[in-house]
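Please check our next protein.
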Amino acid sequence: MSKLVSFRLKRLHFVLLFALVFLGWNFITFYTISSKPRSMGTDKEVHLTNQLQALENEMGKQLEENRKLLN
């Protein structure tokens, strides 16, 4: 009986330690990545942002046209 309880406690401690290490690693990784300044400096990023904005505008226009056609 004592060995079974001891094994369960060891397993519980191992699982808790693993969970704490995992959560700690995620916390550290998230805050190191999110703390870096995000600069939109490259031409490619600016170009992609402009393309995305144009696509969003086209989708909005198409959505309005679809609503008009359905009514």
